[in-house]
Amino acid sequence: MNRTEAYRQGMAAYNAGRYGQAIERLGPLATEPGLTGLLSRFYLGRAHHAAALEHFRRLRFREAAGHFEAAARWNPHGGGMERFLVACHVRTGRIDLAIDTLRSALAQHGDDVETRVRLALALWRNAQKDEAIALLQEGVQRCSQSGELYYQLGVMHAAREEYADAAACLEKAIELDSNRVDAHERLAQVYGVQGNPARALDLLQRAHAMDPANSRIAFQLSVLARMTPGARLPTLEDAGRSAGTLDQAAIDRLGEIIVEEPDFVSAFLSLPASDVDQEVFSVLAATLERALERHPEYADLHYHCGAVYRRLGRNVAAIEHAEQAVRMNPRFVNALILLGELYGQTERWADSVQRLEEAIRQGGDYPDVHYLLGRLLHRSGQPERAREAFERALALNREFEPARQALEDIRLLGKGTRPLVQAAGCD
Length: 427
What we know:
Serine Threonine Protein Phosphatase 5, Tetratricopeptide repeat; 23 helices
């Protein structure tokens, strides 16, 4: 079985709830480079998560923990598609600014929480741990309502096994921001080490309720449940089926990535069709719309938004964005081709032909464009012009079999022998 078919079968199995088969099909693809491997990792993690839930509900905690651990390995940051894509794309490397530069910035703006945290983390990574903790302690005295300072201080205390101080700081972080998933998870770990599994279970269950797709949290829940017989069992949700609310911070970051690298979307559009297209391209559409709120003047964003909506089957929205791209840049070849294809799908033959001819004049002298133009011309009752378009496609690529077959169909039609095959994109 080739990798494209394995990908399609794996996604179909996941979508149908056949998680064992999804794991079997996607597992070998998940280690491959490229976007197919990337999405295989995401849905492999989802499949493991769903399989873990089935074991957990049957009180098979050991098996559940194994699948949750695998899910967390493939998607360590938890969350939905948008958070996963951001985590995979964002590069890790050196600390943003040198320690000296951060010190200078903090000296000028002592109440800047972000700078203080970045400096503390830089010091910690540079093995200056006492100074890092002192810096954060000074910060909570100056900015006593900052949950972020208390959280980072609690994490550092926990790393030094100063569990009482860690618990106090993390409790304060939750008091200041009750929706901090990370603080709930870290505090649960502290209470677990301190021998308070009941409190740890409660905190982890709250964290899971806020972030049900986080397999790392679910893994810890399943381990605690196995280690504490008679404890009230947590209720776990099937995060993969609770789509509808997107991580807005991740959508914003993904939008920034797309603005910087528009080809990021093109890579998705080159993926083979699968049963998870609706989720994947809905995330991309939401991201592009958000990016366009900030950059409505970017023709390439409108073009990519149109292409994504086309993949979703939302042709009206696709046409609106493609038309906007062409209005902004009348020489935008890819947008002209997309608009020609969309007009063809909505039986606007004359408009479609006009856009494709303009694309060719602007440099889109490609075999597939001439082939599509020939199909549209034939559908609009212009067989001679269609013949010319097919012949041009073959002149550009003698191996372009669809154009050769189309010419043969025209020849046979002239003899009344057979109908012309329906054109893809001209239904």
